[in-house]
Structure formats: structure tokens, C-alpha cells
Amino acid sequence: MNPARSKASQRIPFLLFLTLYLLFSFWTYRDYGATWDEQEAYQGGAALYNYVVHGVKPAYLDPEHSYPYTFLLNFITSKMDFEFLHLLNLLFATFLFWAVFEVLLAHCEKPWWALAGPVFLFFNLPFLGSIPANPKDVPFAIFYFLSLAAIYLFEEKFPRFKVRWAILGGLFGFTVTSRIVGFTLFPILIFFDAYVYWAQKNKRGSKDFKEWLKRKAIDWLGVLVISQIFCALLWPYLGQNYLSNLANVFWLSAHFPPKFGILFMGGMTDSLSYPWYYLPVWIAITIPLFILALFIYSLFIPKTAKANKLYVLLMMAFFLNMGLYLFLHPAIYDGLRHFIFLLPIISMLAAIAFIDYFKFGFSTLDRKIVGVATTISMGMAAVDMIRLHPYEYSYFNELEGGIKGAYGKYETDYWVTSMKEAVECL
After folding, report:
1. Residue-by-residue DSSP string for 227-276
2. Alpha carbon distances (Å) from 299 to 57, 116, 309, 317
3. Which of 32, 130, 208, 418 yields a CA-CA distance of 20 to 30 A from 425?
4. DSSP string covering 271-310, please?
5. What's the pTM?
6. Mean pLDDT estimate for the chain
């Protein structure tokens, strides 16, 4: 068979998924209400566009983050048409679904198995429901995962690619300018490269290690330099005085926002002194049970850990960010919003666990039970998606009794997107 035709045929499952996703996007994009600070993101992108393209200095130099995604939207439209912008946001997410499919295809080499990745992510309702009207956190999650996907695919498919540093630097730059936590990509890259060396070349001598370290250090430096050039160009606050203002950015990220109350487990806590289990509880009660169960199972599959570079990379990303959350205790509010970038990682690990379960050792009966249970749970998530639409981001799973069980105990429509429906009813 012609290799090009064979590669094209491997993408047929994803093209089918993409067709359904596009139909979903064009059918629903008018349904979503604007979030309370969504306009700010589009205005920030317009100001950045005028700064980069026309040289107009912004009236306010934002020290918290920049707006690289909404900056890109201004090449398509400068109108504050929320419905059209919601459609563009939905379309931008196709890059994420594509990356999820490609890395799983590189991992398992079976296109129908690889489809588990985008399907699982689609049914991760807090993420799906955030795509249309969250032009801050979702684009960051997309840039973050695209960076992880590039790290993996360069190693798995193009290990001798000479300018990896340039492409990774660009992706890292867009990610960091979206949110400062994007800097975690740098230790992930270094740890992952070290893991690959240890797994494949650990029996060679110290001379080989020195040559590898020298080569990789130049590559890492290239990634850092290119990414920070992007930061200086796309973040006006950093561009004014890079070194001094970068230190201020890190300081502000550790001390923002001011203390205010949040609803959690039926009581009030606040954005600075919440209990350590705030984030684990939100993850446990807001992702569909089949994803949660498979994600937990993914933590206990040593066969995969030994042979699967994708698994190792995603685990590094997840545990590094969870470790920083526990160690730094950053300000947090609006449920999962600031850690929504972990949901594609969790969905991918669940998909890897699903594939692993069917590939290694288990009896036919066990596989049938897991397959049926996954299908039923996915069907229940689909029913909830229909019932909640267009408020899928406020989904709670059966552990909390759905959104009815969460009412009065947790923040639900924290972005007040229901105002659109309320106004239309007047």
C-alpha cells in the first residue's frame, strides 16, 4: 500500500470525529452566554494587536498575563460579536482534539483506539462547556497541551529534527504569555529528555553522557531564548523592562488575587486559605465517572510506565503541577477554572489506561465489563450534557448527585453565563 495513502487512511476515524464536532459547534455556538470578564480578554487582544501591528502602546500594561490567543483572533475579526467569537473559540479547540489523536496514534498505532483520546476529552464536560466563552484559560490549556504533544512527537517521530528548539520555543512562548504557570513546561522538557536518555542509553559511559548533555543543553537554551523573545514581543509589560518586570510577574502570581470568600463543601472558605484537598475534591466530583475511574487506574499500571514515553510525560506534567499546587498554595477560585489545563492531561491518561486495559492480560469477561461500564457512564454524561446545555461547564458527576446535589454546596454558574437566557426570557 502507498505509504501516503496508508497515513491518510489512519486519520479517517479522527475525520469522522471532527465532522461531528464541527456539526456540534455550528449547531450550538449561538447558545452560550458571555462570561462576566470575557470582554476584557477580547479587549486585551485588540490592544495587543494594535501594539504589535501598529505600534500603539497599550493604555494599561497588564503584569498578570497577556492575551496571545485573542491577539490572533484580531487577524480574523475585530468586532465584539460574542456569538461569532464563541464559534471561533470552538473551532480553535479542533487543534487540541487533533493533537490528542495524533499523540495517541503515535503511542498505540491503532487509529480507532487513538480515537478514545478526543472522545474522552469531548465528554469531559467541564472542559467542553468552557471552550466557547473562556478565551483565557481554555486557550492556555490548548497551548499547554500542544507543547506537551510537540515534546512527545519530536521524540517519538522526529528525534533527529534539527530545529526542535525553534518550534518548542514558539509554543512555550505562547503558553507562558497566556499564563505564567506555563514556565512548568521547561522542567518537564528537561526531565522528559533525561528520562528518555536514562531509558535508552543508561548503559553507556560517562563520555556519551557528556556529549548528550552538551547537545541537549544547547537545545534547551534555544527553547528558552526563543520562548522569551515571544514573551517580550507579545507581553508589553515584559517588553518594557524584561528582567525587572519578570521578577514582578512571579511575585504578583504568588500574591494575586485579594482574599475573598468561596463556597466549598457546603461552607465558606476563601481564595487564600482553602483546605489542601480543594483541587482534588473538585477534580473528583466534576469529571465523568468513567474518566475518573480510568484516570485512577492509570496510576497503577507499571507495565505502561516502563515502556510508554507518553504516559511518563503526562504523569510528569500532572504531578509537577499538583506538587506546585500543594507546595505554593496559590490563590484559587471559580472551581477548576485555573487548573482546567489539567483536564486534557487527565482525559489522556484515562484513554491510555483504557487502551492498556484491553491490551494487557485481562480476561474477555473483564474487558466486556469495563467496556459496558465505560459505555454506560459515557451515555450518562451525554444525557447530562443535553440536560445542562449550554451550561455544561457547571457539570457535577454522580458522586455529588449532579448539579442538584452540588447546589448550595459548590459554585455552579460562577461566570453567570445564564444571564443571557434570563435576559431573553424578559
Report:
1. HHHHHHHH-HHHHHSHHHHHHHHHHHHHH-S---EEEETTEEEESSS--T
2. 48, 18, 15, 14
3. 130
4. SSS--TTHHHHHHHHHS-HHHHHHHHHHTT-HHHHHH-HH
5. 0.95
6. 91
